From TrEMBL:
It comes from the Archaea. Residues 11-118, 147-265 form the Rhodanese domain. This is Sulfurtransferase. Gene3D superfamilies: Rhodanese-like domain. GO terms for molecular function: thiosulfate-cyanide sulfurtransferase activity. It comes from Sulfurisphaera javensis. SMART domains: RHOD. Pfam families: Rhodanese. Keywords: Repeat, Transferase. InterPro entries: Rhodanese-like_dom, Rhodanese-like_dom_sf, Thiosulfate_sulfurtransferase, Thiosulphate_STrfase_CS. PANTHER family: THIOSULFATE SULFURTRANSFERASE (PTHR43855).
Amino acid sequence: MLVSTTWLHENLSDVKIIEVDFDPEFNYFEGHIPNAILLRWKDLLHDTIRDFAPPEKFSKVLGSLGIKEDDFIILYSDMGNRYAFYTYWLMKAYGHKDIAILDGGIFKWLKDGYEVSHEIPSLTKCNYQVKKIDWSSRILIWELLPKLNVVELIDARNREEYEGITTAPPEHKCEQTQVAGHIPRARNIPWTVLFNDNGTMKSREELEKIFSSISREKEIVVYCRTGARASAVWYALKEVLNYERVRLYDGSWVEYGNLVGVPIER
């Protein structure tokens, strides 16, 4: 599920590489991994409501990029690779089977001395079709609220957000919620602790220690501000450590911190 920069460099022409950017103007167009296709994160969202793109739009977006259902896709992204993990989670829900994440993203790619390109790949549109959707790794607010006392809750935000000192991280300081704090009983495991200084994910043994207090017997719910950082925690638990019952609350604090009357801790 994670590929190294060395492996990708040796297999550039054998896979479809996608750079997922929240802000492509300051990332993709300043230099990207050779052959990488730009996928704007916002293109994976619904046009009118706060939700993900419906299957028809999702299919159209991937088809427009020349992606086929059986392509082996390698993802990396801006903002610490967080949108690569989020896109991985979403593409799995929409049934794409062969996906991996570039371990360490473009930061590691550059650190290892590999070249970047300013050339925009030519794309041949194809007919991508979502055939099956599986939302079992997602939980919505009306499902979560009755379970607050029984699920294992993990808050993947930084300590200041968790403690209610701030309502948004520095990179999204303009996107505030009405109140600060965290969901009752949630444990704070900031997503950044999952990674080494070079951006790669820590070893399985190190991740086991980080999550040693998290029960494998309970349903686990992870959240952050909008779901991006929490998707990396979901990935570590589900795909690396093989926890079976892990769900992402993508509504996260942007939704929860704006609800009237829900319990909050600081």
